[in-house]
Fold these 3 entries.
Entry 1:
Amino acid sequence: MSEPTKAPAAAGRAATKKALPEHLKAYKHVWVFVEQERGQAHPVSWELLGAGRVLADKLGVDLAAVVVGAKNEQTQSVVHEAFCYGADLAYLVADDLLKDYRNESYTKALTDLVNVYKPEILLLGATTLGRDLAGSVATTLLTGLTADCTELDVDAEGSLAATRPTFGGSLLCTIFTLNYRPQMATVRPRVMPMPERVEKLVGRVIEHPLGLVEDDIVTKVLAFLPDRESSKSNLAFADVVVAGGLGLGSPENFQLIRQLASVLGAEYGCSRPLVQKGWVSSDRQIGQTGKTIRPKLYIAAGISGAIQHRVGVEGADYILAINTDKNAPIFDFAHLGVVSDAVRLLPTLTEAFTKRLSPHQRDRLAS
Amino acid sequence: MHIVVCMKQVPDSAQIRVHPVTNTIMRQGVPTIINPYDLFAIEEALRLRDTFGGEVTVLTMGPPSAEDSLRKALSFGVDRAVLLTDRFFAGADTLATTYALATALKKIGAEFGPPDIVFTGKQTIDGDTAQVGPGVAKRLGLIQLTYVSRINSVDADKRLIEVERRAEGGVQQLQSRLPCLITILEGVNEIRVGSLMDALKAARATLIKWSAQDAGVEDITKCGLRGSPTIVKKVFAPQPRAQKAELIELGDNPGEALIDALFQRQPKLEGELEKLARGY
């Protein structure tokens, strides 16, 4: 860790940590909200159970999974999976009103659970669902919430130390919620490693009623339109990713990224400015506010490598960077670098890869 | 209709640099802009006003210099701009921010008519939390519709609204009621070029400036640093990797040379790439 830069304004206040108020001492154990949409658990939930396991072990407390969903077999199987990914127990709110995610019903379910069973730490995925829910729950409970953490730990006094990028990712900061409970944090998908799944029987499940009828819920779900398989980006799980940035110079040149990706059978992506300019759709954005990737090979072309981008790609096994500026920050964390204009280099690279890799394709067709 | 847009003035993060020696943010000379995600909220609000009539109010909390961004918003044709500025608001985290904004929104409602829709952008580019919109909605008891990619219909008489909301793996079509708070997704519209008339008006307009007291804040301990349950204990620059990238020269046949260099250093990649290219 590098040294803290300048004492932040809050440091003095933080140093005078008050003893936890009596009514907050009852808050114990680490909870992970297991996100599911229509019976499908989001993998970030298992990543969080892995991270939560470490925190719970350090604190010497239980790790609980919180499952909220329709009263059916799919929800039961999500509960089962949660135990396989390391939960010691599960809290379950099962009600058919919870079939679809809606802010009102899910906020009630999770807030009620917290008020009755009192966790000290509550982790959620920083997905569209998790961010929609976390803000409502934290505001209802009037507690602290640290969004998009890249690192979670507990300090010597047992407080959650949540580290996240700040100032658009130029710096990192470590944030505490000292005198409020629960301490809430969200983490983006693929930031934490996926723990190993170990087959286990379902353990202790504590069921809690939702206590709502349909008329209590204002918002109605008229339909759910699943994304077409073909248009879905699979960036987060791709083995090879090719991405472009402002160095491409024009929206037309983004074609060069797609072409290389296509030859490699890779997914393509971009840095944030391209999304802001409207050159590329936001589901292709890589970085702190986009997707976190963990490929075997990442090729970054014309991307300067602001920290906001860096935190999304650091999990890559190998990073090849192409940039005209030899001082670009991307060369601080890439493995191999070429100081060159990506617009010129990409076509020859694509051509060379086509030659190298296509004979095998011919072999396959022949056999 | 009365539509209120909560917006924020942010440093243009593309131009932020960290001082190489002191690891502090070099703010000097970094231009400030309207949070880019908020522009979509402003435009959506203006479109609804153009269709249904009424007024658009923009609200921001920030230092006195945030006036620049409010004037910019007025130049797009926004009707009214409110600046919430007070040293008591400084150092606010998301919870304290939502308290201040919600208090000001109540005051806006009392003075200029209750809002039918409150808009925010998806998130800001400096905080990136996406938590202020939901927090404001919760404090005001408004229905929240986040990540809205499309407003399908608004029935001002029946107080109904239908939207499409980006969810994980698909889009939810939702029906809900007014008043509500909407956080709008980027790319759904394009901010207009304001008329010359609006630009002139914006330059001359008197902004509404409220201190905490003006806005009706009753409990100052819920504002700013004091009202923030989260505490920033440490700020630091990311750890530089011990080794920087190995920079290579490619010569006359750069494509081939780069692939050679890559496979030489990562022999396993050759097989992996062949497998992938074969369609696995």
Entry 2:
Amino acid sequence: MPYLDHASISPITPEVAAAIASAPSEDPTRLHAGARRARQALDAARATCAASIGGRAEEVTFTSGGTEAVVLAVTSAVSAARAARRPLRIVASAIEQRSLLETAASFPDVELISLGVDAHGLVDPAALEAAIGDGAALVAIQVANLEIGTVQPLAELTARRGAWLLADASAAAGWIPLDVSTLGVDLLTVSGSRAGGPAGTGFVWTRSGVRLRPMLRGDDRERGVRAGMPNLPGLVGLAAGLRARIDALPDAEPRMRALTEHLRAQLPTVLDEVIVHGHPQRRVPHIVSFSIPLVEGDALLLGLDARGFAVHSGSACTSSTAEPSHVLAAIGTLTHGAIRVSIGPETTAADLDAFVAALPEVVDAAKARLGRR
Amino acid sequence: MEPIILDCLGLACPMPLVKLNEVISEAEPGARIDVLSDDEGSKVDIPVWCRMRGHEFLERLDRPNGGWIFQVLVSS
């Protein structure tokens, strides 16, 4: 059964499961022998995660996942701007994750400016400068988008007037090479479960000089920035999974890119009408998102599931009160009938050929459901 | 010409668009269709559909009792 939902979470590989099983269970802050082993394992995991994005171990703060990483980054930027008396303004692309946008909107005294994107989902570096105005606490531009896969021109976003630049790498870490020294960002967030690790893991990378402000207090773990016992088995698993992904990237990235390139090209040949989303070149290798007009996304999803294909729908048709996808709305396309296919290192050409072959029948059944011929 | 009233209140996406598409296919060029919908997805999808199909999206008006009126001008 082809699993095509890697942008939500990847199944745990045997390698990662073995790493989790082998992780010490002691408290890394204690002084006994088991605790020292735990501390060494935590340090090694931190070094591996840092190296995966070209950073240093002391620049990485572990969190419970991508969401906590994003919320910690945003709240820290607001605190820093208050202390430095910089303008309380956040400029964020309109297609950031909801965790980021909703956190940014949660401060009554912080102005949130939504930076529009073009039909492919790209921000305009020139528009950013105008949006920042006399300064900002934070500029948030994701490395790549989780729904449509478009990769942003981060290195071109140079006019920032002292604002921190936060790049959410949830759709990118472990899928494309990343190097914080050339990206020019101040903070970068990673979701472990989307980068080859288990659920419940993630981290924030911060440039030297950028200080995080704790949300969880009560001890000195994570340099006093994030209290609470670290999820050591999970983090050891994340390091193993991320390292395996990075080691395999030189082969895996072009192979996955060729597979999704082929899928993007095949879709219009088997469907009467389909809109393929995201930038055709500037994209991560594993995500293909498309919409089929005048059908329910959930009907497509369930029809595909019945045929053994696990995919995700970006649309919200299950209830009339559900908000349509803010990403699809921002790129100015239909918000219903959307399907996101996200492949993984194990996906084969035969998996995607079978998916393409099954699609027309699933679409016809979904149309019939709505009384259409 | 009186506008054609298409009542889609209570229908979830994509039904308002499916019904609008049916009405458009039988309407004369220049006809105006007023779609009543309380589906959030319609706010994005009806203007986008008009652009994709070359019809003119005139306006979205709030309804006093909830939902919106989407005014569409059918092209030739």
Entry 3:
Amino acid sequence: MKYSYIKPRKKTPFTPDVMLIVIFFSITIIMLLSTYFFLLFKDYSFEKERTKLLGERVVLEKNIAKMDKQISFIKEQKVLAQRVFTQNMVLKDSITNLFDLVPERITLSRAELLKNGLILYGVTPSKDVYNFMLQAPLRSIFQKSYTSFYPAGNGWLNFVSTNYIDNDESEELDSED
Amino acid sequence: MKINISRHQIYILLLTLVLLLFVLLFSFLLLIPEGQDYRVKRKELRKATLEYNKYKEFHDKTLTTLKDLQSKNRNIITAFERPFSKERFEKQNRVNFSSLNISRIQRAKDEDGFAVYEVNTTSHISSPVNFYDFLDGLNKGDWIIGANFPIKFVREGEMIRSSFTMKVYENNADKNSTASASSAK
């Protein structure tokens, strides 16, 4: 006995309504999950890049410190070299001045240039020639000047001239330098 | 009034509620905190990039200064690094002297952190001009050398015998980091 003229349909829970809801939520969840994973990935890459930058910054800091040290060392070398070069030039000028100071009529046999003085040995035709031509300029340079004479064989005079700059003054000059 | 709700409708409603609850929980518990974290990390990265760029700029500037200093003072730097060679010095300066004799090199007290060696020199010159040329040559030489007091000149016939002390300055291997070891001593 039949109650209906049509064939019974198979009953399923996936009706068009359910399918619509499932599709809607599936798309929503997929979008949420992809956003979440995108954020996770970006967080990871940001962190990785930041760590890399911090590491590189430390390397740069070390390099900068090293270069600063090298720069200050080169500057120290330059300062010392300039000081030495200047000393050499001052020395050259001192010797030039010394030899320019001695007149032709006086002959030097020995000269000792000290840090704060000058000792000269030589021969002069007379005391007057020495006093006018050498003693006067020496006195203008040195604060203490002593000369002793003794006769040379040919009628000329041997002399020993010892000249010093006052220590206090030379120290002052040094400190001014 | 009687509300007729079929089982199927209840099923749809429940399903919708469960999915909605999942979406809400997921959003509030995971997605939004992660988004905030993302913004914080992006800000930190920007800050780190800015700082890195500043350091890089300063690094490049310092490097340029260093290279500039090195190129301008190459001779001085090399002179401080080069160990003093008595034979080479005599060979270079023999032209200014009729004879040149250098005594043994002795280590003196360090000056400004640099090693100092003292060298006693005796020489014969025909004219003071030779000595001036020698002093000029010292400043252009292979080493940092300063002629020092006392300087003695003694007439010996037609020649002048000069004797003086020279100070040779070198990098101090103990103190100066960029110093090279001088093995020629």
